[in-house]
From TrEMBL:
Residue numbers spanned by region Disordered: 386-409
High-level lineage: Bacteria, Pseudomonadati, Pseudomonadota, Alphaproteobacteria, Rhodobacterales
Keyword list, A-Z: Coiled coil
Protein's name according to its UniProt entry: Putative chromosome-partitioning protein ParB
InterPro entries: Chromosome_partition/occlusion, HTH_ParB/Spo0J, ParB/Sulfiredoxin_sf, ParB_N
Amino acid sequence: MTANFAPFTVAIGELIAHPANVRSKSPETYDPENIAHLKASIAVLGLLQPLLVQKIDGKYAVLAGGRRHAALKELVADKAAKGFTAKTKVDCRLVPDDCDVTTALSLAENVTQAPMNAIDEFEAFARMMEVDGQTPETIAKTFGTTVAAVKGRLRYGLIHPDIRAAARAKVITLDTMKAFAEHPSQEAQREVFEALTKDGGYLQAYTVRQSLKSRGVQVSDDIGAFVREDYVARGGAVAADLLEEHSVLEDAALVETILLEKLGAAAEDARMRLGFAWADAMVRYDYATMADFGRVYPGPIEPDEAAQKRIDEITAELEKLQLEMEDEGLEEDAYTALDDRVDALEEEARDLQEAYSAEDLARSGVIASWSGGKVTLHVGLVRPEDTVKEEGARGSSSNQTGEEAPDAGEISYPASLAEDLKTERAMALGAAMALHPEATLDLTLFKLVSDVLYSGMAVTQAIKIEARKEYRNHAKMDEIDETSLEQVAAAHDALDLSWLDDARAPADQFAAFRALDAGEKAKLVAYATASTTQSCFARDPRRDSLMHEFEIEVMPDIRAHWTPNAALFNRFKKAWLLKILGEDLGLAQEAVTLASSSKKEIVAFCDKLFAEPFATLTDAQRAAVAAWCPPMMQTAGVACDETAPIVETPEPDGEVAQAA
């Protein structure tokens, strides 16, 4: 039998509780506090979900929807609620007399559930604030949700009606509609909407956001927060949002004017404090424009007695901090705090031992720009017309920004870092071996046969060689680049392991293994051999010519399996990072600019650079970034003992696991 739950309307006063309603035995369910959110929703939007009722003794008993019924009765009793009386009719579905209660309840979900449209919810929250004077906090409490969720919906409730209508009609996506909330002015929203849709093109959220950015600056933006007080004092127009942090400073020209004034003041303050000849400001530091500028650097000076005392104090504290930072159990936040303290102390010590010459100060200056949400000072810049043309001019420490960065000293890897880099290189080599099964199979067989023949071992003894998985120790395995791990996992997923069934006898497993084709066997052997690779740096061709040549074949470029990341750069000294940027990568301008930044900022820059080389790089710089790694890690690169004072432990011979 198919139940026909006919729609009709019933006055609230004619509704009663159904004796079969399962919630009727739980009166706390209908407590006013437990239905407050339903009451608020129905008051704003009406009853969106019809009640399921059955006629009993001339009344309509609510079989499904008891909480909504309780909320309706609360609204009738609430004199402040408008439009709800005992005579107000609401939508219901009538359960026929010949339909048993069990069937009716089983079908109730399909008949009565109609979830609130997302846009309806946005508009409901906005109306509750505008008309009823509620706050995000009170709305969140009423609906049993979070303040953040309410705030998110409130923003979309104020989007221009035409744009909301387009979203309802699915002309644009919900994400695209949400993008218009970046600007609280409905007029600005409408203008952008019409401009972007006039040719009938497909509207994207990204395009909307980019177009709205030209209409002003949000007060929550770093620049907006920086200039807002002065902007308001000068009478700049503000497009107010229901939520303060999304209001917009509409006069973009005034915002830029104030920003440049504040940057100029910061540059002038630095000029007077450091003694430079001139000061200037620019919103964004333009490297192309600054390419012709030179730069001067402070030179060493003899510190006086007070300065020397402070330097000694700094040296002692730095030694103590370095010991603390070597604690492998140190939490990341604690390590970062110590590292920041080290940077501050090193900068203070440098200032006590260095100074600009009078000649350099007389022709150099400082530029302030906005970067990373704060004022950044670029000091010691020399205008093209003031640049000393003669190389090595007496008394000058200047150089062109296109030349190498200041000498940062030799890079010497600490033992703990060297061991971890060995492990990461072994993982990369293992991935390369798994991806070259034929070559790795040949290596495995060669070592097996040559070791047996060379040592005179019997064949039966050779078959008993025990392959073992190499244990690779690393201080922070969860922070290494995962490229090699993903490649090895993919190689494992591609293996045919149908023969490896514990339910089978070894002889049956062997028979199934023998039935595999040669290519599948090569993959299995290569994967097993790859997991035995020991931690090591680049092989010395004089000591291990076999593995040196093999590694060059399967891993000519370690960067195909491994990429430097923030975790690695964070373990480098600030001076090393600047040296790598300036000398190894040819980014001298960036190295000079970042010299005044914290190590944390330099690490973030390097991480982004290697994750996705910037579009502004030259071909040579891009190639350098794509190829760079610590030299002892690159197979075809410089041998370990030629780059850093690290002693390699001799590797044992005789087993596949040891040789590979």
